[in-house]
Protein 1
Amino acid sequence: MTLTIDTASEGLAMVLKDYQEEALRFIWENKGHGASSREVWNHVNRTLKTRSISRASIINFLNAMVDEGVLNYTEITGKGGHRRIYSSKLNEAQFKQYVAETVIGNLMRDFPVETREVVGRVK
């Protein structure tokens, strides 16, 4: 996953779009029950209210999170064919650690001396 950091934002909004954060929060709150892309999509659109997010955007995001190891899925068969039920592999705290490790790891790779210096000063 390519993380784009918006330092003007706070919390998860620094690395996630509003609909992506809502999608993850919905799955985290389901605690093991899992959710289909349709359920996530419905929740996100009910919650945001300001605009409509396409189902394709939700599916693409959920699948990207599976690829990154943030989410799991099981495939079920039902009316209309196969569908994925997404569940959390990483909880919110673990996801935040994943983001921090990714960012710091890349900084250490590209700017090791400067990153060590700054990390040593951060309290």
Protein 2
Amino acid sequence: MPRTDECSWPARIGTLALALLLLLVAGAGCTVGPDFQPPKPEVPSAWSGPVTPEAAAQDIVHWWSMFGDPTLTSLVDRAVKSNLDLKQAEARLRQARSARGIAAASLWPAINANASYTRSRTPVDTPKGTKGVISDLYRDGLDASWEIDIFGGVRRGVEAAEADIRAAVEDRRDVLVTLLAEVALDYIDLRIFQQRIAIAQENLSVQQHTADLTHKRKAAGFVGALDVANADAQVATTASTIPPLEASTQQTIYSLSILLGEPPGALLAELSPASAIPAAPPNPPAGIPSDLLRRRPDIRRAEAQIHSATARIGVATAQLFPTFQLTGSGGFTGSHSNDLFDWAHRFWSIGPSANWQLFSGGAVTSNIEVQRALEEQAFLTYQQTVLTALQDVENALIASAREAAHRKELVDAVASNAKAVDYATQLYVNGQTDFLSVLDAQRSLFATQDALVQSTGAVSTDLVALYKALGGGWADEP
């Protein structure tokens, strides 16, 4: 009698399945789709804007510390810990890492445990009529399946997911670079507004003193009502500039509070006292244009997005080819619960399978073209990002250089206007000139002092813009 137990056929089936498995694994080195080639954009060898040789030695990782302002450093440290935009970017990074785990899981077999109990009634005809037979069925076991990645579709999916992780890392760095710049810019703006208020109050005090003098001279009959009206108008005009500056001061504090993840008024007590504008260090950094390709997070992110798009062409291309699976199941079954532990009631099955979609109405090839178009878009985005980065640095370099020259001229203008006010006031008191000369001198002094404060702040904000354009503020994690 031929044997039908597992001593013969199962061995043959197992041997066949193992041979097929080895054959499939041997062919698993094939990976369809294009391999990613990092782009090599053309960039100039040097900047067009002015760059000093000393600039190359500067560290731009902790650039805000170069301003030597403890309050700014404190705000930056707190923003990095609590800013909500940065926390969102970190959550997106965790999402990308988990998505990679989902993609990689398809490389491994899937094993499911199952158990069931069924009680059923089956009608049976007998000589005396029909009666029902009640039966029980107990079953437990394991099911396993493994799709062999012959053509590399799953591996391309993992490759795309890993590129997505790199893109998320660079996205987080880009948010960090932007955050650091926004904190510094808002802080410098705050100190600019406070210094402008101080200048306005100082000029208001001088102009009020002049107006009082004019009132006394009118009472003594030395001047007419026109001089008094002009003096009072000048006082009111200068006073009118203060409330808008005060509003801007508080609004800037509110902005800083939000950047730190705090309610708008959380920093009012800390930042309301006036302080000096952070002084910009000399010799702004620049490096060379090719450094941007390694430093700017948005460029690095755009490159990772090209890689992801390229890998997804392979994922789509793999759908043109058949898929192979190795499946198996085993366990125990019987009509009594004790059968679940009886070796004689075991069952099992194992075998390979193949599936090939022969016709899909062009959906697969169309999807490949979609992925190729997405890759082209990613490459064009990369090129645009590089050009924008170059422009950002060039703009910051020229703005920084020209603003420094502008500030130097304003320093001389303030000194000359201060002398003009003293001379005009003395001549007016001595009756040697009219009051319009005094008014003109005071207006010019106030205007140049206010412009000097703004220019001093602009020198610092231009430097912050340069640090941001260079991608400063992050370092590779150890």
